[in-house]
Amino acid sequence: MMINKENLSVIVPVFNSENTLDDLYHRLNNVLINITNNFEIIFINDASMDKSLDIINSLSKKDENIKCINLNKNFDQHNALLC
To answer: Cβ(57)–Cβ(22) under 8 Å?
Structure first.
């Protein structure tokens, strides 16, 4: 049941999270679609050395609500969120 038509952005800092990204995406998506039609999930890849960026890019190709910001060096979680 839709309870709100407001825009909503969820910011997710990512560092070497290849094993959890797909599950996180599905869980977030399931919650957000019940809140609003107007949402985005912004993954901020903080220079991951695993396949996190590949997974985020794959998700974003399948779902227009997924955005990716790719940092070219590791800025740590706080700075990634500020980004």
So the answer is: no
Instruction: Tell me the mean pLDDT in the region 27-43.
Output: 95
Could you give the CA distance from residue 4 to residue 6 in angstroms, rounded to a whole number? 6
Q: What is the pTM of this model?
A: 0.84
H/E element, 71: strand 66-71
Q: Where are the domains of the chain?
A: 18-82
Helices 52-62 and 21-32, axial angle in degrees (round to 10):
30
Residue 38: which residues within 8 A CB-CB, separation 6 or more? 5, 6, 7, 8
